[in-house]
């Protein structure tokens, strides 16, 4: 009772009943959240129709709350609309904290932990060659090529499925499902009436105001296909003895070996099916965000591209594309990867958590049930850690600083979230982003595009997505560095070889 009299963390004033509804932007909420952080400090609290929202804005507070108090800060909100009505309740990002989550995270880390990543290197290299070959054949449509590369990479690694065209059915299905998931079902700022009043889930779909039930029914069938079809594809390939080594086939094989009756039990089947889908869902938009910001940075900073090309020419030469064995000799490319992760901050406010008990932090009261957002966007722009934080400056990672400062500047502390829900794909993305960036720098010149009047076109950077920092497609010019580069790209081993 005493704690309940403590003040809530500070934040913008809301209106009666609707609270801060009008402060919640449908897209680019992270820009507002950074302004609030600058105005109110390390914790900011808002409410929408009485639902508390807490933004954790500094690394210190994130460690104290999301890591050290992880036992009560790692749960997920119960979302009637997204979970029950739209069929997403078993996605890892929505799974409550408990035994099931621990079991499933163990499975993902078993397959994607630091010590397993080198086994994916050959697949990553081949998929990257395909990306370069795709850009070569359609230089005017790099956005579709990137989406195909990103979706194709995950379909290959998770399901052993090869995407050979931009109009591949599974790729299109996944892309549509993800768009519905992040921009319709789980859009930040959208408050579903049924989440506020769960009993409304029982009203019939024809009832006035029940449009959400009709939408949910359509979206649910799409989500089910998204979860089941690629998984059944791998199982079918395994039955025929033609499955490629991948996340699903590897874990189903292990499970069959462990099981006494040689058949995978239903719990294991369920865990593999849903973790596989979550890996796909979680890697697509995040990778598109990081690579889009790489292109943006290259056209805005031609000197960075030239410096990286010089480094690659000296360490790798121009008779082949870079491979993972070159990584230790390419520190500037590594610095570009870190700076792209920092500036893009692909999941800027993390994925919302729900706190399971009333809690007090530095004299502020945080009520049970509050939704908690780890504002990594703000942490990655902390001027004390990253001077001139809005500038793209890979050099900041190569400065000669003491060990403590270098550790503090490691973007991986922030960009992948915190504690018990930290991103399990961090090692995979570190590898896939590095090889993609190193290869594109080695083979292409990237610059602003020129319109039909010969004028340089400045990219117009607009964000529509509400969860991920994905810029709207913008124009740029990408072309092979030389005729020799074309030959090297064409000769590199691709997916269809
Ligand atoms: C640049 C790329 C990526 C970034 C910046 C990123 C960042 C994040 C963040 C911030 C979270 C929320 C963590 C939290 O609650 O504290 C998360 C969760 C997650 N990420 Fe990533 N991610 C990336 C790529 C990937 C990839 C490639 C995969 C899979 C291969 C993946 C799989 C997941 C999964 C399954 C979760 C949910 C974990 C849970 O709720 O327990 N992510 N990611």
UniProtKB/TrEMBL annotation:
Q: Where in the cell is it found?
A: Membrane
Any Pfam family the entry gives: p450
Tell me the pathway: Secondary metabolite biosynthesis
> Which amino acids does the record list as binding heme?
423
Q: Name one GO molecular function term.
A: oxidoreductase activity, acting on paired donors, with incorporation or reduction of molecular oxygen
Keyword Transcription among UniProt keywords: no
> What is the name listed in the Swiss-Prot or TrEMBL entry for this protein?
Cytochrome P450
Q: Which organism is it from?
A: Polyporus umbellatus
């Amino acid at each position: 009772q005493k704690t309940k009299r403590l003040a809530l963390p500070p934040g913008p004033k809301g209106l009666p009943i609707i609270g801060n509804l009008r402060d919640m932007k449908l897209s680019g909420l992270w820009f507002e959240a950074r302004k609030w952080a600058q105005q109110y400090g390390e914790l900011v609290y808002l409410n929408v129709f009485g639902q508390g929202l807490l933004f954790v804005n500094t690394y210190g507070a994130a460690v104290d709350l999301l890591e050290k108090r992880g036992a009560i800060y790692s749960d997920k909100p119960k979302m009637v609309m997204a979970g029950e009505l739209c069929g997403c309740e078993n996605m890892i990002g929505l799974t409550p904290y408990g035994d099931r989550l621990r079991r499933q995270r163990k499975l993902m880390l078993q397959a994607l932990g630091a010590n397993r990543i080198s086994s994916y290197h050959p697949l990553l290299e081949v998929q990257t060659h395909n990306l370069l070959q795709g850009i070569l054949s359609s230089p005017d449509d790099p956005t579709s090529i990137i989406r195909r590369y990103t979706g194709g990479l995950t379909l290959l690694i998770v399901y052993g499925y090869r995407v050979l065209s931009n109009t591949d059915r599974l790729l299109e299905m996944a892309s549509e499902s993800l768009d519905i998931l992040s921009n319709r079902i789980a859009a930040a700022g959208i408050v579903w009436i049924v989440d506020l009043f769960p009993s409304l889930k029982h009203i019939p779909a024809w009832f006035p105001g029940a449009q959400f039930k009709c939408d949910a029914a359509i979206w649910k069938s799409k989500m089910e296909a998204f979860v089941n079809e690629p998984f059944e594809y791998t199982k079918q390939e395994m039955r025929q003895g033609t499955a490629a080594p991948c996340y699903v086939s590897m874990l189903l094989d292990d499970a069959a070996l462990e099981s006494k009756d040689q058949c995978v039990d239903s719990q294991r089947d369920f865990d593999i099916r849903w973790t596989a889908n979550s890996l796909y869902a979680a890697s697509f938009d995040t990778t598109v965000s990081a690579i889009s910001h790489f292109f943006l940075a290259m056209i805005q900073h031609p000197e960075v591209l030239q410096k990286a090309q010089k480094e690659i020419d000296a360490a790798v030469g121009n008779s082949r594309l870079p491979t993972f064995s070159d990584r230790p000799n390419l520190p500037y490319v590594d610095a570009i990867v870190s700076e792209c992760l920092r500036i893009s901050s692909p999941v800027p406010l993390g994925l919302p958590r729900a706190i399971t008990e009333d809690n007090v932090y530095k004299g502020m009261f945080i009520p049970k049930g509050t939704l908690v957002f780890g504002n990594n966007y703000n942490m990655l722009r902390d001027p004390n850690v990253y001077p001139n934080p809005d500038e793209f400056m890979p050099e900041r990672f190569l400065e000669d600083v003491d060990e403590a400062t270098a550790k503090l500047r490691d973007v991986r502390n922030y960009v992948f979230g915190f504690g018990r829900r930290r991103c399990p794909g961090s090692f995979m993305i570190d590898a896939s982003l590095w090889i993609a960036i190193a290869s594109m720098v080695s083979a292409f010149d990237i610059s602003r595009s020129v319109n039909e009047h010969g004028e340089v076109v400045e990219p117009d950077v607009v964000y529509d997505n509400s969860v991920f920092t994905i810029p709207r497609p913008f124009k740029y010019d990408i072309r092979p560095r030389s005729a020799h580069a074309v030959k090297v790209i064409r000769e590199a081993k691709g997916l269809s070889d």
